[in-house]
Amino acid sequence: MKRLWYYYIYLLLVWGCFRYFVRLPEVIEELWFKPVLWLVPLFWWNLALKEKIVMFGKKGKESLLWGLGIGAVYFLILKLRAGGSSTFDFNVIGVAFATAVTEELTFSGFVAGYLEKIRKGKIFNLIIVGFLGAVIRLPILLFVYQATGAEVAGVLLVAFASGLINAWIRVRTGNVSGSILARLALNLAALG
């Protein structure tokens, strides 16, 4: 469990410092730097494990169906709240996709899978994943968007709930593809 906390502290520090000190276009940060900074350490960690974390198990269709359904709910809730208008371009789609893949492979895929190996079937595992997924948003909220207290609280609440639900999809099916699909819908609704 210590290794998980070391990785998370690494993410908070490295990603937080990156978001604070480096000011590149968001498309470059999300498409190029985020996957490298987040996923390369996970790849090496998974290689070092005796029992590897499998992120794409046998229930791919079931996972995708759950992801499609929950993603539709995310999309509808956010679009109804925002008035229903959407504008998408290749940059928005690229950022939404890269963020969904990177963060869901990290949290729903690896972290939820790792916690399941330690303590199988615990709701506390889902709460931990939701919490970690919410708190990791603080650097961008504070340093890039300079969000107010109410905005930060709202984003953290949505991130916690969606992180918990997406981790549930992964744990239920043993496959992270549905979590990625649900998160993609959430990102498209929030960004578009």
Describe it.
The chain has 192 residues and is mainly α. It has one domain. Helices cover 81% and strands 0% of the residues. Helix 2 runs parallel beside helix 4, helix 3 packs antiparallel against helix 7 and helix 4 packs across helix 7. The mean pLDDT is 91.
Number of strands: 0
Low-confidence stretches: none
Number of separate domains: 1
- Share of β-strand residues: under 5%
Helix percentage range: over 70%
Q: Helix-strand pattern, N to C? A: HHHHHHHH
Distance between the termini: 37 Å
Which structural class do the helices and strands define?
mainly alpha
Q: Describe the largest sheet.
A: none
* Total DSSP helices: 8
Our Rg estimate from Cα atoms comes to 16 Å
Overall pLDDT confidence: 91
Shape from CA axes? globular
What topology emerges from the helices and strands here?
Elements: H1 2-21, H2 26-48, H3 60-82, H4 90-118, H5 123-135, H6 138-144, H7 149-173, H8 177-191
Summarize this entry quickly.
This protein has 192 residues and is mainly alpha-helical. It has one domain. Helices cover 81% and strands 0% of the residues.
Which terms would index this structure?
81% helix, globular, mainly alpha, 192 residues, 8 helices
